[in-house]
Amino acid sequence: MQPLEKINSKKNKARYEIVLHTLLNKFEIINTELSMEENRIFIHNTSGRIKNMDSIQTKLVKKGCEPGYEMAMERINDIVGVRAVCYYMDDLYRVADTLSRHTDMEILRIKNYMEHPKKSGYRSLHMIVKVMITFSGKQEWVKAEIQLRTFAMDYWAVLDHQLRYKKGSLDINAKDGMEIEKELLDYAGALETIDKKMMKIRDKIEKI
Ligand code: 0O2
């Protein structure tokens, strides 16, 4: 078994940087293409990160895996992760569909947390993909995760993520902890309702 530290080799770091930029570039291309077709912008902002070794190790342990290099390659899909925040819920499908037509990318799995939100209330459209890059003169496929969210989904997830550090010390089975989890779930539902209403308003305006 090779040590997990191999993730941080110069070659791997460069490889992941290339994948990150390739995907962020795809978002820009798609935004240009869709705004030409529909006369409006689809993607408001994008971000991306390369997962650090500690997070990879924590995730492997959580999955019950030996924290080695091969295991990370096999089980961790989001070493490279990019996110696009879009305006409306149906924009996420449109962006995903446009991405799926890129021949240098293959969709391995779609996790539709809009249709099936996580029990925390988390909503988003995740795509596990493999991206083809040319690196050191050779073509290779590298796995990555794409997260597509609306503003509302992102707003909830960012606050939830921030609160999570504080929630970490809460006993979610204790009364207070359970109440907080329930409130966050309720607010995720409320934001989903707003997301749907905003889509309706957009359609109404477009008809006028
Ligand atoms: P970070 O900081 O975003 O990197 P799997 O490999 O499919 O078994 P995985 O990768 O945990 O499991 O899959 P999942 O749940 O589809 O995606 C995890 C990512 O989604 C998280 O990444 C978060 O970005 C986001 N996410 C999932 N659930 C929640 C949630 O309840 N609240 C918030 N705020 N975000 C969530 P990481 O690796 O946890 O962290």
Description of the structure:
Helix 5 (151-167) runs antiparallel to helix 6 (175-207). The chain has 6 helices and 5 strands. The longest helix has 33 residues, at 175-207. Strand 4 and strand 5 form a beta hairpin. The protein has a single domain, classed as Beta Polymerase, domain 2 (2-Layer Sandwich), CATH 3.30.460. The chain is of the alpha+beta class. Strands 1-2-5-4-3 form a 5-stranded mixed beta sheet. It starts with 9 loop residues before the first helix and ends with a helix. It is flat. The chain has helices spanning 10-38, 53-62, 69-75, 89-100, 151-167, 175-207; strands spanning 43-50, 80-86, 105-112, 125-135, 138-150. The structure holds ligand 0O2. Ligand 0O2 is lined by residues 51, 77-78, 81, 111, 118, 120, 122, 126, 157, 160-161.
What's the quick description here?
The protein is α+β, with helices and mostly antiparallel strands and 208 residues long. The protein has six helices and five strands; from the N terminus they run αβααβαβββαα.
